[in-house]
Amino acid sequence: MAYIDLNPIRANIAQTPETSDYTSIKERIKPCFQLDSAVEEQIELGALRYFNVPLKPLSQFEGAVKNEHQKGILFSLSDYLQLVDYTGFCSCKTGIHYIPVNNR
Fold first, then answer.
1. pLDDT digits (tens, 9 = 90+) for 49-60
2. 8 A C-beta contact, residue 17 and residue 6
């Protein structure tokens, strides 16, 4: 997942993950997309005739492994952002972090 979230930066399509329009990390950092509204808008515009599939939002970060059934991602969002930042830093020639410190 971190590899995919960093692809737009590697391809010079975006400067940072939070400015990337092509991955889920932007939505995870600053949620603003409403899936149900987007589908309705596309139907109204005629881009979709119908949408016969249940809507599935992004998986939530659970924060930790628990002794119960879990449907989300088994670590916290802050841990994931650190992983993306560290991975981006390791692969970045300039040594500049991809996720600004004030977004952590």
1. 777 777 777 888
2. yes
